[in-house]
Amino acid sequence: MCGILAVFGCVDCSQAKRARIIELSRRLRHRGPDWSGLHSEQDCYLAHQRLAIVDPASGDQPLYNEDKTIIVTVNGEIYNHKALREKLTSHKFNTGSDCEVIAHLYEEYGEDFVHMLDGMFSFVLLDTRDKSYIAARDAIGITPLYMGWGLDGSVWFASEMKALSDDCEQFMSFLPGHIYSSKVGGLRRWYNPTWYSERIPSTPYDPLLLRHAFEKAVVKRLMTDVPFGVLLSGGLDSSLVAAVASRHLANSEASWQWGSQLHTFCIGLKGSPDLSAAREVADYLGTRHHEFYFTVQEGIDALEEVIYHIETYDVTTIRASTPMFLMSRKIKSLGVKMVLSGEGSDEIFGGYLYFHKAPNKEEFHEETCRKIKALHLFDCLRANKSTSAWGLEARVPFLDKEFIDVAMSIDPKWKMIQRDIGRIEKWVLRNAFDDAENPYLPKHILYRQKEQFSDGVGYSWIDGLKDHANQQVTDSMLTNATFVYPENTPTTKEGYYYRTIFEKFFPKNAARLTVPGGPSVACSTAKAVEWDASWSKNLDPSGRAALGVHEAAYANDATETKLKTDGLLS
């Protein structure tokens, strides 16, 4: 991942302003430690902090068209850049960067080209011929982007809030699947898939079609000129990513440089569920596995730094980001710059345990749509910023546009959890890779129950966070929370504690409003809380809060945990 910062319409165009832009861009250097670039054009500035993944030697940014009238700064990867270059035979490319195609596509097609990009990206482009500019974000919001407005009339774009929050009066998270054009003003949606309307699909389930679509999504993400690996928790999603990557690595270009043995990485408290499961999967696949440990105290000590980097006070996101943040530092120390990860599957297939209580296929499907639309505020934000904090790029094959189209077109009756016939959560995905002749994974791993990352690293992690927050936040502080934090008022001491840290770094009201609120149980949306009356009394984002579903569900008093060994609770 790279860091981008762009400013348009500055009243002050002095050397002091240029120095200020450079200073703010440096706040993003953790995202791109390999090179810094800045293009200034009268009252316009485009800055870039580069993490070199493809064409490290010549792909420094900003990037240009042939006569340098079009300038672009990009954060992301364009997986189909070679195919797009073949459509641009009249254009001369200056680098081997996958992102350079954006400048030439704009020159060829104008603003109507973003849908042609297959990848994860946020970019800002300046056309010096008429001083117009555009900004766009990928379909799901895998890469972060913020937009702000200065008192002097300037318009700002940045990969992270910290690069513009001090200089903008108002700012917001740039919507995924949207483009901003200075010619038109305002955002418009360029990504318009069928599922977005939330209409109930009726396509029959085809396991081979689903399998092939996912394999294709993984293979295209092996595009790299640097060492890489897979984040492996031992759960279904990361295990499938590792299994497919391992199976296809030998035939990829990446193997020519880095060999055909896949590296996998896992973190957890000693004795945690993820560590043992990941080790078993790694042994089965024959990967070179790296196992990292952390203690509850080490996680607590990192909280302030984690919240500064991920820019949220959402409880679930912070719980899961902390071990991922710690693991990313270890991975980067090994010389690895890119990893594949399993985010997105639970949203697409209804994998969170609360989906067991979906009353019908219509509500099931509508909830998956809501969850995908909100990914940029939760799991995408976590996966991107936790890794980018250490100059590590995370790629997410489950959020491939083509794969989402296939998966979201399936009649949701096939995704519904039906215990009586042996269909647990994400059965359609598990079944698609249940190949008896050429197994991808051991059967019990393929059918392992969902563990949220913050649970799977060790149940005592969440309990330790709650205990720590209880020591920092008094009863009186929580009682008066509505007066101190009227927007998205925290309802638990843990939430209050995270909020105080967030406000220290990002005190403006605009920053508070970038974080969603509302009741949630086991990562549900507020709407899904209505599926079970008991959930409203146990609003906790942990998977263990799904009473009657998780094998290690919270006890009825919601403070103690008890490991069940006799299958799903009735």
Key terms for this structure?
570 residues, alpha+beta, 6-stranded antiparallel beta sheet, 22 helices
Question: How would you sum up this structure, described in words?
Answer:
By secondary structure, the chain is of the alpha+beta class. The chain is 34% helix and 15% strand. The strands form 3 sheets. Strands 2-3-1-9-8-10 form a 6-stranded antiparallel sheet, covered by helices on one side. Strands 4-5-6-7-11-12 form a 6-stranded antiparallel sheet. Strands 15-14-13-16-17 form a 5-stranded parallel sheet, with helices on both faces. Strand 4 (63-64) and strand 5 (70-78) form a beta hairpin. It is globular.
Low-confidence stretches: 553-570
> SS-based structural class?
alpha+beta
- So how many helices? 22
Annotation, overall tally of beta strands: 17
Shape: globular
Strand order of the largest sheet: 2-3-1-9-8-10
Portion of residues within helices: 25-40%
Which value, in Å, is the CA radius of gyration? 23 Å
Give the percentage of residues in beta strands: 15-25%
Distance between the termini: 44 Å
Main β-sheet, in a few words?
Answer: 6 strands, antiparallel
* Quaternary structure of the protein: single chain
Average pLDDT works out at: 92
